[in-house]
Design goal:
Blueprint lengths: L2 E9 L10 E4 L13 E6 L4 E14 L9 E2 L8 H13 L4 H8 L17 E7 L3 H11 L4 H13 L1 E3 H8 L3 H9 L3 E7 L20 H14 L5 E7 L5 H14 L3 E5 L6 H12 L3 E4 L5 H12 L5 E4 L11 E7 L16 H12 L2 E6 L4 H8 L4 E5 L10 E6 H6 L8 H13 L2 E5 L8 E4 L16 E3 L4 E3 L6 E3 L11 E4 L3 H11 L5 E4 L1 H7 L2 H10 L4 E4 L12 E6 L13 H13 L10 E6 L5 H7 L3 H14 L7 E9 L2 H18 L7 E13 L2 E10 L3 H16 L6 E7 L4
Parallel strand pairs: 9-14, 9-15, 10-12, 10-13, 11-12, 13-14, 16-26, 17-24, 17-25, 23-24, 25-26
Antiparallel strand pairs: 1-2, 1-4, 3-4, 3-5, 6-7, 6-8, 18-22, 19-20, 20-21, 27-29, 27-30, 28-29
């Protein structure tokens, strides 16, 4: 029997439930091109629908059965290295995703449709963004695959990237603008014109910085980390440093050490807003030897940066979560700054955590993983205290300045005194002092918009989203009501639609705080930093430059202002609603609140002038508030780890969440009950395992789909992960579950 070349291929059309390597025949004309790591087009399924795939391996053997041939090869050379292929296989098992889902996370957005390239952009462009959640868009794309393939491709791409220029999307998918218009007409996408700013050049500096000078404390931490990095084996360390202690200087020295030894380095930050400032610092030290990867780049720019990295033309990568997949070779160091931030966890398939992927890559390369934070996650500090990570501490600010003096403002007293606004009398007095002294202030409130609740004062009617089980937020700009989950928006009425009564606007967001500040300080310029203002201006960098260069007196914003901002003239920070995220049904609520308050307070007094902070709260006696005011992380940690052990929450045990969703609530609940029975059968005899639920998700209905979940509490093991995967496959194969989808999440953030 004749020997033929056969390829094992991961096919994009194979969803998680039927995902496995499929064997195809390699035609003679494609021999030498269809190699591991290359993308191919193959016929798939009974209808032989053309589908993209990635070659996993090639063998020469007798063809035992009639196999379908590969139709074409898309790449002149493999786009995935052997390391990336093995990483995708690991992610498939670890994060309950298909192999191709893992591949898509690794590659520049849009690359799986066509070979990309740098695209010339005009000053303004038409942008298209999803009007529905990514998972719903992916489901609709699957339904449209046969009758409207270009619309399906557009939705699939947008499900991954969220939005993009119409020209870019059409170029990558081969779709026409008419397909985009059709999706807009169906209410699946929205179109808008935006100003386009050149990236990734913004943030780069032409000047060259001198050698990094470290304090004695920084030098001690650096020496210990350098020893780990040069040991020849993989390692992990936690760099625990108070706000303003100079962790970035230690990172710079470590990166220089890695480069001097012929290795490469990667530095991750939790938000796009932190990349320009970090890029500026690193470019001053490493010039053109850096690449930038994050979602604000156009698809063409992301492809160009990815190609520079793959070709070895840069040795340092700076970026957000997805930059952990940068195709660097000979990695010596990976730094994850502000490692506690939840943005390092993906909320869409594959639901990976950048920290876990970074660990895998460090093991592969024998590299050092450095986790840096002033408020480490409880899990990371636990691993450091128990010896799984090395621990290095920076207990003093780099300029030997004291931590900010903190005042707690009791908002109950403010109400009794007749002040029902967002700004307490204490904070107002401090703002007046700063304005008189020519110093700057940052105010933090973790809600955008004007008011979080619109309710009739006469009949009690409340405006809720028609698609989600949440209240709609009022935005004064344009007088609109908006759902921050599905994006539904409608004009705000003048009176109650039910009884004609007067509407009350309850709660405050960044817009309302901005309005109050303009009333209190009519002569002062106010800047607002949230997703609304950033999308309008097009760049965090431009907004921060205005704050830095024009010395705008007051900046008010959401979480974007809590970390990474280093301005010497900022001497006052105000936390306007410290209780907002504290009293919710989430075991991490205390940790997040402590971290947010500590981080934003740390923005004050980073220069030569002393800093102050005002924390506004209705529960000033709460220990989380008082510990954050003292910047006392270790006392917080000791209390929190004791509580975690008591309730068997991470790191005492691991968590898995299995969620079912669909338009019919009863069907979703029935499906979730079936999932529990399957899980119980597959995990019978597993020690230390508890299954909770079914229970409604924190937000039970999003975009017209109800969500119920099961929670598994147990030590993570291959047996448990295999049981979850098998349960999901059984669920999908059961015809009674039509209309209900299910997915699993390892270590959910909520």
């Amino acid at each position: 029997m004749e020997q033929r070349l056969l390829a094992r291929i991961a096919v994009s059309a194979a969803v998680f439930e039927i995902d496995r390597p499929y064997t195809y025949l390699i035609p003679e004309k494609l021999a030498g091109k269809a190699v591991p790591g290359a993308r191919v087009v193959v016929p798939f399924g009974r209808g032989n629908r053309r589908s993209e795939g990635v070659v996993l391996s090639v063998t020469s053997e007798c063809e035992r059965e009639r196999l379908k041939p590969i139709e074409s090869v898309l790449d002149d050379e493999p786009i995935l290295s052997d390391e990336m292929l093995h990483l995708a296989m690991w992610m498939r098992e670890r994060f309950f995703c298909s192999f191709y889902d893992a591949v898509r996370a690794m590659l520049p957005a849009g690359m799986w449709f066509r070979d990309g390239g740098h695209m010339v952009e005009s000053k303004t462009q038409r942008f298209v963004s999803l009007a529905v959640p990514g998972e719903e868009a992916a489901a609709v794309a699957a339904q449209k695959r046969l009758r409207a393939p270009h619309q399906a491709d557009l939705l699939s791409l947008l499900a991954s990237v969220g939005d993009g220029a119409v020209a870019d999307l059409c170029r990558f998918t081969g779709a026409s603008p008419a397909a985009v218009a059709a999706l807009e007409k169906q209410g699946l996408v929205t179109l808008e014109t935006r100003e386009v700013f050149r990236r990734p050049e913004e943030g780069l500096r032409s000047e060259t910085a001198g050698p990094v000078e470290l304090t004695a404390e920084q030098e001690k931490a650096f020496s210990g980390l350098r020893e780990l990095m040069t040991s020849g084996s993989a390692g992990a360390a936690l760099l625990f440093g108070v706000t303003g202690s100079g962790k970035t200087s230690v990172y710079l020295k470590l990166v220089r050490e890695a480069l001097d030894r012929g290795r490469t380095a990667m530095v991750l930050v939790p938000e796009i807003g932190l990349t320009p400032q970090l890029v500026g610092i690193f470019s001053a030290h490493f010039g053109g030897d850096i690449a930038v990867l994050h979602s604000s780049l156009s698809m063409g720019e992301r492809y160009d940066e990815w190609r520079r990295i793959r070709d070895g033309r840069v040795r340092v990568v700076i970026g957000t979560r997805s930059a952990v997949f940068a195709p660097l070779s000979r990695i010596g160091l990976i730094v994850i700054d502000e490692e506690q931030e939840r943005t390092y966890k993906s909320e869409n398939s594959p639901r990976y955590h950048a920290r876990e992927v970074a660990k895998w890559r460090c093991v592969r390369h024998g590299a050092l993983l450095v986790l840096g934070s002033a408020t480490p996650s409880v899990e990371s500090m636990y691993f450091a205290r128990t010896g799984r990570y090395a621990l290095f501490t920076l207990g003093e600010r780099y300029n030997e300045r004291p931590l900010p003096r903190v005042v707690i403002a009791d908002m109950r007293r403010e109400l009794r005194a007749g002040n029902g606004g967002s700004i307490s009398s204490v904070l107002r007095a401090e703002l007046e002092k700063n304005l008189a002294a020519g110093e700057q202030s940052i105010l933090f409130i973790n809600r955008r918009g004007t008011s979080g609740l619109v309710v009739c004062g006469e009949c009690g009617y409340t405006y809720t989203c028609p698609n989600c089980s949440v209240s709609m937020t009022y935005h004064a700009v344009g007088r609109r009501l908006m759902c921050h989950y599905c994006g539904h928006t409608e004009p705000a009425p003048e009176t109650c639609p039910q009884c004609g009564g007067k509407l009350n606007f309850v709660g405050a967001g960044t817009q309302k705080v901005e309005e109050e500040l303009r009333t209190l300080f009519p002569g002062a310029e106010i800047a607002r930093m949230d997703t609304d203002t950033v999308s309008r201006s097009g760049s965090h960098e431009r907004l921060l430059e205005r704050f830095r260069d024009k010395r705008i007196p007051i900046l008010v914003g959401t979480q974007m202002v809590t970390k990474g901002l280093d301005f010497g003239n900022v001497t006052l920070v105000g936390v306007l609603s410290a209780d907002q995220a504290l009293y919710v049904s989430d075991f991490r609520a205390r940790e997040r609140t402590f971290s947010l308050i500590t981080q934003v307070v740390g923005r004050s007094g980073r220069g030569e002038k002393s800093g102050r902070a005002v924390i506004q709260t209705f529960t000033p006696e709460n220990e989380i508030i008082t510990l954050a005011a003292r910047q006392d992380y270790m006392s917080f940690y000791e209390r929190e780890i004791a509580l975690r052990k008591l309730i068997s929450a991470p790191p005492a045990l691991d968590l898995f969440a299995v969620t079912a969703s669909g338009a019919d609530e009863a069907a979703v609940l029935r499906g979730c009950v079936k999932l529990r029975r399957r899980l119980e059968a597959y995990t019978a005899g597993t020690d230390g395992l508890s299954i909770l639920g079914p229970a409604p998700a924190a937000v039970a209905k999003v975009s017209g789909r109800f969500r119920y979940k099961l929670t598994l509490m147990c030590p993570a093991s291959k047996k448990v992960r295999d049981a979850i995967a098998a349960s999901l496959r059984d669920f999908s194969a059961d015809k009674e579950n039509r209309g209900v989808s299910a997915f699993a999440d390892a270590d959910p953030v909520e």
